[in-house]
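Hello again,

I reread your note about wanting to compare the complex against the isolated chains. To keep things tidy I'm splitting this into two emails, and this first one only covers the full assembly. Below are the input lines as submitted, including protein chains and any nucleic acid or small-molecule components. They are followed by the predicted structure of everything together. The single-chain runs will come separately.
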Amino acid sequence: MANPVRNAPSNPDALPDNPIQAGIKDAFWGGVIALGLFFLLIGLETTQNIRNELVIEQRWLLLIIVIAIVMAGRFVMTAFIRPAFAERARSRPKADPDAPAHPLRKHWQKLAILFLFIYPVLIVTLLGTQASLKWVDNFGIQILIYVMLAWGLNIVVGLAGLLDLGYVAFYAVGAYSYALLSEYFGLSFWVLLPLAGILAAFWGIILGFPVLRLRGDYLAIVTLAFGEIIRLVLINWREVTNGSAGISGIERATLFGIQFNSSPEGFAALFGLPPSSAYYKIFLYYLILLLCLLTAYVTIRLRRMPVGRAWEALREDEIACRSLGINTTTTKLTAFAIGAMFGGFAGAFFAVRQGFVSPESFIFIESAVILAIVVLGGMGSLPGIAIAAVVMIGGTELLRELEFLKLIFGNEFTPELYRMLLFGLAMVVVMIWKPRGFVGSREPTAFLKESKSVSGSFTKEGHG
Amino acid sequence: MEYFFQQLINGLTLGSIYGLIAIGYTMVYGIIGMINFAHGDIFMLGAFVAMIVFLVLVTIFGGINVVLFLLIMMIVAMLTTSLWNWTIEKIAYRPLRGSFRLAPLITAIGMSIAISNFVQVTQGPRNKPIPPLVDAVYEIAGLTISLKQIVIAVLMVVLLAVFWYIVNKTPLGRAQRACEQDRKMAALLGVNVDRTISITFIMGASLAAIAGTMYLMYYGVVVFTDGFIPGVKAFTAAVLGGIGSIPGAVVGGLLIGVIESLWSAYFSIDYKDVAAFSILAVILIFLPSGLLGRPEVEKV
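Full-complex prediction:
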C-alpha cells in the first residue's frame, strides 16, 4: 500500500533481531499497562445492595483473564504477525496497473446489483417465508438504509469536502415529516416521500446559510450542534411530536393502492398467495433498494454536471475555486441540500418501515456511524461505502445472532451488550488497517482520452 | 436581583467544570489539530474511577475524611485516566498521524463509543449515587454559596494558573507551542514530538479526571453516558473561546455554564441545551475563530 507517511518515521526498529524476545518484552509491558487500565474498572465492580447503597465486589479472576488475553495478544502480534506482515510487504510483487482486469472483476458492480435484486427470492426459496424474514429485514433493509444514508452524506463529505457531524438531523426531519403529515393530514407514503425529501433539503439550506463562512472543525461542531438542536426540539415540543414517547401507528406504504394486510383486497389475497407478513418486508426491501440505486444514479450523474465538478473543485481547493469564478455559496448550499434530501428520503422510509419514530433513533452516535461508514469506505467511492456499510452494520447485526455463545459463557451472557463496544473498536481497527478506506482508488470526473482510476491519496478531503 | 446572582454563581460552577474539560480539548486540538472525541468519555472515566476509589476508601476506613478522600480520589483518577489517554493516543491516534484529517477523527469517535460501552459492560448501566461529601453552605449577602462551589471555583483558578504557567514559562510548554506551530520544524530543532504529544494527552486527561471528580462531588451521581453531553458542551466551549487558546477554553466554559443556568432560570429548562448550541452558532457566524482565537491565515 502506498502510504509512505505511515511507515517511514514511526518505527525504525520495526524488525528486531529476535521477534520472540521482543514479543515477550512487549507482552510484559502490555500486561503492566493493562493492569493499570483495568485494575479498578474490571477488578472491582460497583453494585447496589438491598438498601440501594453502592457496594464494591471483587472480580480478580476476571481481571487476570483479561490481562492474560492482552498479554497473549501483544505477544502474538509482536512475535508472529508483525514479522509476517513485514515479510509479505517485502516479497509482494508490484501489481501492473495496465494489466487487463478479470471479466468478473470488471463487471462486479453489475453482478452485485443483480445479486441484490434476487437476494430476497433466493433467501425465501432457501429458508421458507417465515425464516427468511430476519435475513431480509435485519440484514437486507437495515444495511441498505445505512448504504443510502452514507451515500447521501457522501455528497456533503466525500464530494464537497464539508465535514458534517449532524447528518442524522435530516434523517430525523424526513422521518418526522412523514410521521406527522400522515398522522395529521392522512397523506399517503407516495405523496410524502418526495415531500420529506424536499423538507429535509429545505432544512439543509437553513443549516447551510449560517455555516457558509465556517471552515473545518468549526463547521463540524456547528453541524453537530444543529443535529442536537433538532433532536432536543423533537423531545421537548411535546404538543406536536409527543416528546420522547414518539409517534406510533404510522400508516404503512401501499403498492399502487394494494395494501399489505390479510383483508380480501390485500396483497396476498389478490395474488392468491398464502397470507404472510413477509410480503411487506420484501416490498420494503425492494423499495429501499430502488431508493439506494436512485441515490447512486443521481450522485454519478451529478458528478459529471457542472455542480458536481464544482463540489469536487471546492473539496480540492476553495481559494482556487473562488479565483476561477465558481460561486462557493451556491456550491455549498446545493451540496447541503442534495445530501439532506437523500437523508430525508431515508428518514421517510425509516418511519414507514418501523411504524414508529422517537427521538431515540436520531442520536449523535447515528451521525457518527454514518460518517464512519463514509470514511471507512473511502470518501467519495460509492462501492467502497457500500462495502463498509455491509461490514460494519452487517457485522454488528451478526452479533445479535451469536446465541450459541450462551452455551460457552453461561446463560447470563448477552452478546447484545458487547455490540457497540465491538463496533467502536472495529472502527479503530479498520481505520488503522486501511486509513484511505476500503476502496483506495477513485474514478476521475475529468480526463484526457481515457479514464484511469487514481489512488485515493491523490484526492483531498477538503477543509469545509 | 439576588435570584440572578444566585443563578450566576450556579452557572459559573457548572462552567468551571466545562472549562476544565475544555482545556483538554483545546490543548490536543492546538498541538495535533484533531478533535479528540474520546475526551468526554475520559472525563466520565475519571468520575467513575473517583467513585470506585471513594467506595474502596469507605470500605477500608469505615468513616469519611473529606479532604483526604477527595485528594486520593483525584490523584488515582488522574493516574488512571492519564494512562488511558496515553494508551489511546498510542494505539488509535499515533499510527494515523500524517494520514488525512478525518482518519483520527473516526478513530476518536470509535474510541468514545468503545469507552462508554466498556464502562457499561464492566460497571453496569445504572446510575451510581454516592453520599454527599461536602455539604457546608454559606450565606453571603443573601446569596447561598455551598462549599462545593467554592472548592470547584478555587480549583479551576489554580489549575488555570498552573497550566498557563506550564504552557508559557517552562521548556515543556515551549516544546508544546513549537509543535503547535510547526511539527516538522520542531522535530528538526530537537524537540521530541511524540513525547510532547503524549504529555499533552496526559495533561488533558489529568484535567478531565479533576473535572470528573468535581462533577461527582457536585452532583453525587455518575452514569456511563455522562461523557457525551458534558463532552460536547466542553468542546463547544473550546470552540467558542477560540480553539487552541487555554484562557479561551475557560472563558467559553464559563459562558456556556452561565447561559445554560440563566436560560433554565428565566425561560425553560427543557431548552437550555438548545440555547447553548444556538448561541454557539450565532457567535461563530460573527466571530468565525471564536472569542479569543487567532484568525486562521489562508495560505495559497
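For quick reference: The two ends of chain A are 28 Å apart (CA to CA).

B.
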